[in-house]
Design goal:
Two copies of one chain form a homodimer. Chain A is mainly alpha-helical. Chain A has two domains: 60 residues, Multidrug-efflux Transporter Regulator, Chain: A, Domain 2; 49 residues. Helices cover 50% and strands 3% of the residues of chain A. Chain A contains five helices and two strands, in the order ααββααα. The first copy, chain A, has a two-stranded antiparallel sheet. In chain A, strand 1 and strand 2 form a beta hairpin. The first copy, chain A, is elongated and about 65 Å long. The relative contact order of chain A is 0.09. Chains A and B meet through helix 3 and helix 5 of A and helix 3 and helix 5 of B. The structure holds a DNA duplex (30 and 30 nucleotides).
Chain lengths: 143, 143
DNA sequence: ACTCGACTTGAACTTCACCTGAGGTCCGGC
DNA sequence: GCCGGACCTCAGGTGAAGTTCAAGTCGAGT
């Protein structure tokens, strides 16, 4: 009753089973195996998976999420206090994100709105070096 | 004096030349060719490129940006008023984005903070159907 | 004992937004 | 006339975050 199958975890969290296996490969979650090699998850995994999904929606990469999860205690099931600590660290990130979008919005009102987008003094234009040297691959648009 | 090379556009906008060629492939920008087959851009292209880059920072995909640009008049150089119209539509998007992050932040304070993440009544958990059927490939985290 | 859905693995494929490199051409200046 | 830097095309690579498929195995219920 306490050991959940991958299908159950998927259903309760909304994550695809393929995603759960992928996250296990990355070390974000763990599972024990039955004699027949099937995964069985602890109940606490549901909370962990929910955290991962919520974090993704905030724009964090799995790498960053993994780093955050690594700060949880390994030997015992994380308590509400443990999660609260992560949540506090996170709040700052969300606030920062909001701040950046607000700035962009305000720049826009006074800048694109007036059609000045091509002037060298334009606040939007003067971010020319933005994302200048990130190498190949898609770049995280972490707004 | 009025026809810009790709290098000039790159320098003035901060976009890489490879990106400019790519955007041309996608139909986001256009160029005329010299007898020697080199691209020459109108001055107005700089504004267009600036718009693309600013839009990316807001989290829009090139697809969406293309759709927005398609509403600009083709026969004449877009006026400040044309750009202002795009900007207005955009502002709503930014406001919505801010609203969503704020909601997540507030849910977090009362939800992960209290450790309730596993309850079925949890606001974060009840988004289980989020991103449920988007097919393969990475999914845009448009926060 | 049998069935059938849920599970297993690994490899290959997908999307997005480009970047890199090879091999060649153009063109402004001396 | 020649040099070098800027340009051209096209093929293939890159990274994240998975999905899809094939071929097989498990395990709960009848």
């Amino acid at each position: 009753m306490s050991a959940l199958t991958i299908g159950e975890v998927a259903q309760r969290t909304g994550a695809a089973t393929s995603a759960l296996r992928y996250w296990e490969d990355l070390g974000l979650i763990t599972a024990v195996r039955t004699t027949g090699n099937q995964r069985r998850y602890e109940r606490a995994t549901i909370r962990r998976v929910s955290f991962i999904r919520a974090a993704q929606r905030v724009g964090l990469s799995l790498d960053e999420i993994g780093a955050a999860l690594a700060t949880l205690p390994e030997q015992r099931t994380p308590t509400a206090r443990d999660w609260a600590r992560l949540s506090r660290a996170w709040r700052a990130r969300l606030d920062e994100q909001i701040r950046r979008i607000e700035k962009l919005r305000d720049d826009l009102d006074g800048c694109i709105g007036c059609g000045c987008l091509s002037l060298t003094t334009c606040a939007l234009n003067n971010t020319a070096d933005w994302q200048a040297d990130l190498g190949p691959g898609p770049h995280k648009l972490d707004v």
